[in-house]
């Protein structure tokens, strides 16, 4: 079975392409997802995508990725579906690593930090803009000191770099990716 990467996007990232394009560029979240899926195929990994504007939903999705059943996480589908659309199926929830752009929750969410640490999932933190070249408070991350890598300021190409990093390092580990 292919290694699985969970790509999480936090608050307001559904607005990519329209929100402050001078900072975040013109690529949309759908563009990011399409690129991630194409890249996954080339790397022989699976990338599952999740976006939420709600901290608790992100925490639930991280828990589900680590196999903790009974979570209430839902997914936002980019295409239409049936009555089960939005529900995470246990067999589809698992992940070996996480690539996360927590958006504004970067600077505030102890809950996301604790979820990542509590599940033991290795993760890469991604930011489209260079958070260190913006307001001082944007440079403070509750995740960076525990991330395997932090990528910022590369635009949406940062996602490509993060997925590549995660995939290569997962494949280099015997017996599964305990760390990237």
Automatic annotation (TrEMBL):
<feature type="site" description="Transition state stabilizer">
    <location>
        <position position="19"/>
    </location>
</feature>
<feature type="active site" description="Proton donor">
    <location>
        <position position="127"/>
    </location>
</feature>
<comment type="similarity">
    <text>Belongs to the type-II 3-dehydroquinase family.</text>
</comment>
<feature type="binding site">
    <location>
        <position position="114"/>
    </location>
    <ligand>
        <name>substrate</name>
    </ligand>
</feature>
<comment type="pathway">
    <text>Aromatic compound metabolism; 3,4-dihydroxybenzoate biosynthesis; 3,4-dihydroxybenzoate from 3-dehydroquinate: step 1/2.</text>
</comment>
<feature type="binding site">
    <location>
        <position position="101"/>
    </location>
    <ligand>
        <name>substrate</name>
    </ligand>
</feature>
<comment type="function">
    <text>Is involved in the catabolism of quinate. Allows the utilization of quinate as carbon source via the beta-ketoadipate pathway.</text>
</comment>
<feature type="binding site">
    <location>
        <position position="138"/>
    </location>
    <ligand>
        <name>substrate</name>
    </ligand>
</feature>
<protein>
    <recommendedName>
        <fullName>Catabolic 3-dehydroquinase</fullName>
        <ecNumber>4.2.1.10</ecNumber>
    </recommendedName>
</protein>
<dbReference type="GO" id="GO:0019631">
    <property type="term" value="P:quinate catabolic process"/>
</dbReference>
<keyword id="KW-0672">Quinate metabolism</keyword>
<dbReference type="GO" id="GO:0003855">
    <property type="term" value="F:3-dehydroquinate dehydratase activity"/>
</dbReference>
<feature type="binding site">
    <location>
        <begin position="128"/>
        <end position="129"/>
    </location>
    <ligand>
        <name>substrate</name>
    </ligand>
</feature>
<dbReference type="InterPro" id="IPR036441">
    <property type="entry name" value="DHquinase_II_sf"/>
</dbReference>
<keyword id="KW-0456">Lyase</keyword>
<feature type="active site" description="Proton acceptor">
    <location>
        <position position="24"/>
    </location>
</feature>
<dbReference type="GO" id="GO:0046279">
    <property type="term" value="P:3,4-dihydroxybenzoate biosynthetic process"/>
</dbReference>
<comment type="subunit">
    <text>Homododecamer. Adopts a ring-like structure, composed of an arrangement of two hexameric rings stacked on top of one another.</text>
</comment>
<dbReference type="InterPro" id="IPR001874">
    <property type="entry name" value="DHquinase_II"/>
</dbReference>
<dbReference type="InterPro" id="IPR018509">
    <property type="entry name" value="DHquinase_II_CS"/>
</dbReference>
<feature type="binding site">
    <location>
        <position position="107"/>
    </location>
    <ligand>
        <name>substrate</name>
    </ligand>
</feature>
<dbReference type="Pfam" id="PF01220">
    <property type="entry name" value="DHquinase_II"/>
</dbReference>
């Amino acid at each position: 079975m292919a290694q699985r990467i969970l790509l999480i996007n936090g608050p307001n990232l559904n607005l990519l392409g329209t929100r402050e394009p001078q900072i975040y560029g013109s690529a949309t979240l759908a563009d990011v997802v399409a690129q991630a899926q194409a890249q996954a195929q080339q790397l022989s990994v699976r990338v599952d995508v999740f976006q939420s504007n709600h901290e608790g939903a992100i925490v639930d999705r991280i828990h589900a990725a680590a196999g903790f059943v009974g979570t209430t996480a839902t997914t936002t589908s980019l295409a239409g579906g049936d009555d089960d659309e939005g529900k995470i199926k246990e067999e589809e929830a698992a992940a070996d690593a996480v690539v996360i752009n927590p958006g504004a929750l970067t600077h505030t969410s102890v809950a996301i930090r604790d979820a990542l640490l509590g599940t033991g999932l290795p993760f890469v933190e991604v930011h489209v803009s260079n958070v260190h070249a913006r307001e001082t408070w944007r440079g403070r991350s509750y995740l960076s000191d525990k991330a395997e890598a932090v990528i910022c300021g590369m635009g949406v190409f940062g996602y490509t770099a993060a997925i590549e990093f995660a995939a290569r390092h997962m494949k280099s580990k015997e017996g599964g990716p305990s760390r990237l």
